[in-house]
């Protein structure tokens, strides 16, 4: 697969997700949209990490909990390495150390490598633990042969790595590996790569082992100016790290905190590069609507298995973050609330044409009930 200049990270994600589903490359859990996609052959691709010299000499390996990395987690346990897996969404800490029962058989080790096994056979690793990670394995939605990586859009892999740097668990020479299908190896415009983005040194696919030789520096710690107050609220371990760095005299001003010099992030356009509502020379399909309508937007036709966080992420990427979100799952809809009708109109315009999974969402202003 090839990409064209001028695309966004999200358009690359959508193209790969769609391609994997339409060509039946995707594997459980499906659909792969809004996930680190699992694919047929991922287990064997992950097992090929044993052929890397950087794996043979490791003692402690950090592997993300994504399904396509299950083969790597199993191999790490089978090779009697210390396996660290990030806690889901970092809400209960940074790592869990997988601890198989004494005398664990191959089948039990295989269970320990699953998401359920990670929950059942692990102990938390605190910030004060002596951790020195020899190898980092991350999932990806897209990656280039130059080592530039695109995740699913939540930024957790980038943040996890930055947090490991801050606690001294990794250094600039710690190798990073990703496991993807061949169709996920694409050209990524350099303009899309940001300072906080994690790059990779090795790419494993079902048919290839790619050494990227990436010279772009990896994150050297947490970029607090990229962290939001909401993220800090949700991730206790991040608050602890911030307090440590604050006491050390570092600038830990958050992105949306008073005193921040960072401009508010602009909206991310969809692949069709829609102009924003109110842009000069453009006309939104919602312009001319009654501006006295309630400051809400009705979002309907949500796929039956959509999660709240998936819609929230889409709203954030489009620059349409609401004050709050009313979730009406049984009706397959949600109602974002905004400060005023103008903000709601802007959000509705940005949301026109948005798709989640296979569904094109229905977007309208106000408290409409005919969805």
TrEMBL record:
Gene3D superfamilies documented for this protein: 3.30.70.330, NagB/RpiA/CoA transferase-like (3.40.50.10420)
Database matches in InterPro entries: FTHF_cligase, FTHF_cligase-like_sf, NagB/RpiA_transferase-like, Nucleotide-bd_a/b_plait_sf, RBD_domain_sf
GO cellular component: cytoplasm
GO molecular function terms noted in the UniProt entry: RNA binding
Keywords, ordered alphabetically: RNA-binding
Biased composition (Basic and acidic residues): 246-258
Residue numbers spanned by region Disordered: 246-289
Polar residues bias locations: 279-289
Signal peptide region: none
Protein name: Methenyltetrahydrofolate synthase domain-containing protein
Organism whose genome encodes this protein: Mus spicilegus (Mound-building mouse)
């Amino acid at each position: 697969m090839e990409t064209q200049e001028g695309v966004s990270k999200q358009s690359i994600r959508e193209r790969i997700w769609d391609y994997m589903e339409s060509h039946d490359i995707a594997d459980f859990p499906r659909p792969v949209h809004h996930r680190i996609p699992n694919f047929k052959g991922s287990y064997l691709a992950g097992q090929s990490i044993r052929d890397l010299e950087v794996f043979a000499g490791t003692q402690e390996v950090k592997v993300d909990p994504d399904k396509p990395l299950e083969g790597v987690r199993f191999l790490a346990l089978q090779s009697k390495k210390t396996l660290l897996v990030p806690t889901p969404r970092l809400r209960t800490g940074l790592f869990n150390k997988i601890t198989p029962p004494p005398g664990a058989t191959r089948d039990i080790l295989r269970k320990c490598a699953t998401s359920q096994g990670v929950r059942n056979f692990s102990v938390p690793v605190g910030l004060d633990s002596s951790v020195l990670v020899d190898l980092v394995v991350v999932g990806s939605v897209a990656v280039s042969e130059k080592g530039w990586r695109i995740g699913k859009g939540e930024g957790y892999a980038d943040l996890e790595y930055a947090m490991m740097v801050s606690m001294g668990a990794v250094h600039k020479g710690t190798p990073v590996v990703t496991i993807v299908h061949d169709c996920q190896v694409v050209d990524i415009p350099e303009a899309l790569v940001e300072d906080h983005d994690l790059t990779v040194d090795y790419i494993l696919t079902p048919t290839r082992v790619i050494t990227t030789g990436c010279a772009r520096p990896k994150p050297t710690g947490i970029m607090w100016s990229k962290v939001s107050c909401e993220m800090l609220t949700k991730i206790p371990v991040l608050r602890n790290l911030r307090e440590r760095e604050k006491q050390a005299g570092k600038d830990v001003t958050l992105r949306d905190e008073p005193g921040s010099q960072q401009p508010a992030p602009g909206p991310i356009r969809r692949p069709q590069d829609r102009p924003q509502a109110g842009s000069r020379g453009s006309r939104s399909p919602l312009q001319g609507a009654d501006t006295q309508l309630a400051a809400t937007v009705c979002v309907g036709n949500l796929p039956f298995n959509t999660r709240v966080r998936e819609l929230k992420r889409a709203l954030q990427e489009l620059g349409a973050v609401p004050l709050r979100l009313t979730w009406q799952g049984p009706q397959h809809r949600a109602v974002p609330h905004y400060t005023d009708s103008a903000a709601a109109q802007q959000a509705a315009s940005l949301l026109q044409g948005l798709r989640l999974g296979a569904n094109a969402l229905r977007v309208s202003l106000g408290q409409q009930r005919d969805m």
